[in-house]
Amino acid sequence: MHVVFSPRYRVDIGPHVFPTQKYQLVHDRLLRDRLIDAADVLEPEPAPWEDLALVHTADYLSGLRDGTLSEEAILQLELPWSHEMVEGFRTMVGGTILAARRAVAGETIAAHIGGGLHHAFPNHGEGFCPFNDVAVAIRVLQRDALASRAAVVDLDVHHGNGTAFVFESDPRVFTFSMHQEHNYPMWKPRGSLDIGLADGTGDAAFLEQLEAALPQVMASTPECVFYLAGADPYDQDQLGGLSLTQEGLRQRDRLVIETVRRAGVPLAAVLAGGYARRVEDTVAIHVATIDEARRACEGRV
Ligand SMILES: [Zn+2]
Q: Which residue range forms the structural domain that includes residue 163?
């Protein structure tokens, strides 16, 4: 299985709840534990601006590129602007596009140690998400006639507001978000299937609802599935309150990956959020996701 990664994802954003070092740490741990080989790792190029323009408005993109976003726009993004920040995230979009291309090119499963920037809208970024990588990747697949129909399985603790908004009127794209209802974002644009969970839901109820929902996702007959395996439903997360354990999160990953694999549909897995008190926990959760994808790819589960 190919794993997409770039050291450019580690961006200096000052003291922040978002640990941008997690991507490098996940990559290093996968290699150290011999879960992947260096030869499995693909390094992406920054997504071309014309690809970003398949989702984002020209005004917003020029503001990001030139550093001319308003103070209000920067506050909403919740990231300090820098050229390095823009290039790091543009590379991350390139990573999700590369993983999607690999998945639909017959590799079945490709994993990205990055991505899942689901709070970005066409004309603004929010919640640490300057670009919506998954939305851009879907538009690239459609433009290049690599896939027309796609599904998004978004299991980050936060609702995938930007992604739902982008595809609101595209019947070819099924957007499924299962998230904590009483959490950011306040405004949750309607996706194809939204399940808002109660605070402290826990493993058993989470997995039960997920198992019941996945057949609806697959019934939309996607040609590619994007899985946002957020680590923030974890019970030690600073921004989440769903109280899942690390074992529960691994079972969640296995359920999604196995369901998609059994249907014979290409899968691109991306990491999304993760703000555990101990960054090692966030890293362990993301490593487990990639490990589950790798096992499924090798037919070991
Ligand atoms: Zn999140």
A: 3-297
CA–centroid distance, 160 to ligand 1, in Å, is 9
What's the gap in Å between 210 CA and the centre of ligand 1? 17
How far apart are the CA of 7 and the centre of ligand 1, in A?
22
CB atoms within 10 A of CB 143: 11
Can you give the three-state secondary structure of the chain, one letter per residue?
A: CCEECCHHHCCCCCCCCCCCCHHHHHHHHHHHCCCCCHHHEECCCCCCHHHHCCCCCHHHHHHHHHCCCCHHHHHHHCCCCCHHHHHHHHHHHHHHHHHHHHHHHHHCEEEECCCCCCCCCCCCCECCECCCHHHHHHHHHHHCCCCCCEEEEECCCCCCHHHHHHCCCCCCEEEEEEEECCCCCCCCCCCCEEEEECCCCCHHHHHHHHHHHHHHHHCCCCCEEEEECCCCCECCECCCCCCECHHHHHHHHHHHHHHHHHCCCCEEEECCCCCECCHHHHHHHHHHHHHHHHHHHCCCC
CA of 244 to the centre of ligand 1 (A): 14
Both ends of the chain: CA-CA distance in Å?
15
Q: How many domains does the chain have?
A: 1
Find the CATH number of the domain harbouring 244: 3.40.800.20
State pLDDT tens for residues 2-17.
Answer: 999 999 999 999 999 9
pLDDT digits 0-9 by tens, 189-247: 999 999 999 999 999 999 999 999 999 999 999 999 999 999 999 999 999 999 999 99
232 C-alpha vs ligand 1 centroid, how far in Å? 6
Q: What angle do CA 13, 253, 121 make, to 5 degrees?
A: 45
Q: Are 109 and 266 in contact (CB under 8 A)?
A: yes
Cα 230 to averaged position of ligand 1 atoms, centre (Å) = 6
